[in-house]
Every structure is written in structure tokens, then in C-alpha cells.
Amino acid sequence: MDKVRHARDGGFTMMELTVVLFVMALVTSASLIGYRSYIHGANISALSQVIRNVRTASHQYIQINSSYSGLSCPALSASGIWPPSGCNGPSFSLSIPQTSVSVAAGATPYQFSIVILSSYFTDTDFEAICNQFQAQATQCSPSSGTLTLVF
Fold first, then answer.
1. Residue 4 lies in a domain
2. Fewest CB atoms within 10 Å of the CB: 30, 77, 94, 123?
3. Which stretches are transmembrane (predicted)?
4. pLDDT beneath 70, residues of the chain
5. Among residues 73, 41, 35, 34, which one has the least CA distance to residue 57?
6. DSSP secondary structure string for all residues of 87-141
7. Residue 148 CB contacts under 8 Å (≥ 6 apart), including other chains
8. Closest CA to 110 of 140, 73, 151, 77
9. Residue 19 is part of which domain span?
């Protein structure tokens, strides 16, 4: 007599494959959310560092020129304070998406402002940056897509 064979011929059922694909999709989506959050945090840190670098360069500019009159990225570059490749027209060259940073003389000869235009950062991000620089900045004004810091 032939024995009845109860074992499968091999392979996975469609249900097993579906469950595995579903679990893989969940793990992938969770890791992508974490990765996007990590990248966003890194871009906020990068923007803060750019502000610090521009502030330091601006302080060097006033030591050379006795006022902030004419202060801009090209002027910092012409003074040898900022690298020539670091300017993109009147703005600073950045690796942060959808963001431009510029610097200009302030209302008085001893003030300057850093203006950030961005569709990438939120108002909450700008408020966090204001909190970082509240001790140094005399004014920090976040509004929709724009942050102005006056030093």
C-alpha cells in the first residue's frame, strides 16, 4: 500500500509570504521615520553652526572695517574672512535644503542681522534656534518661512 503523504511539497504559502512582507513594510516605515527625524535634527544643527560661523566672520569684518557697513557674504569673501566658494550670490552656500542665509549691516553701525529664508524649517524650528541664540542676539524674529537675528 502506498503511504499517504501529509507533508507539503515545499515552499511557503501565500499567507506566510504576505505576513513576512507586511512585517518588513512596518520595520522599513519605522526606520524611515527615524531616519528623517535624524536628518532634520542634523540640518537644524548645521544651520546653528552656520549662524555661529557667520557671526564670528561678521565680528572679524568690523575689526577690519570699523563698522558693519557693506557687510555681505561677498564682502566677507573679498576681505579674506570667508572662502570665495562659500557664497552663492548674496547668500552663503549651504547644504541645507530649501534654505538661504544672508547677512547685512544693521540699523546702527554696530549691529548686523542674519536673515534665514526657508521652506524646509518650521516656525517651531526657528523658535528653537532663537532660544539657542537668545543670550547673544538683541532681537530674534521668527515668522512664516523667515528668521531674522540681530546681533
1. no
2. 30
3. 12-35
4. 1-9
5. 73
6. EETTEEP-SSTTEEEEEEE-SSTT-EEEEEEESSS-HHHHHHHHHHTTTT-SEEE
7. 113, 114, 115, 116, 139, 140, 141
8. 151
9. 14-150
Report the 10 Å Cβ neighbour count for 81: 17
The C-alpha cell that represents 147 in the structure block: 528668521
Position 10 scores a pLDDT of 75
Structural domain count of the chain: 1
Q: What SS3 class is residue 1?
A: coil
Considering the entire predicted model, what is its pTM? Answer: 0.81
Strand pairing category for 139-143 and 87-88:
unpaired
Cβ atoms of residues 74 and 90 within 8 Å: yes
Is the distance from CB of 116 to CB of 99 less than 8 angstroms? yes
Asked, for residue 31, whether it belongs to a domain, the answer is yes
Q: Which three cell numbers stand for residue 142?
A: 521668527
Q: Give the three cell numbers for residue 104.
A: 547685512
Does residue 35 sit within a domain? yes
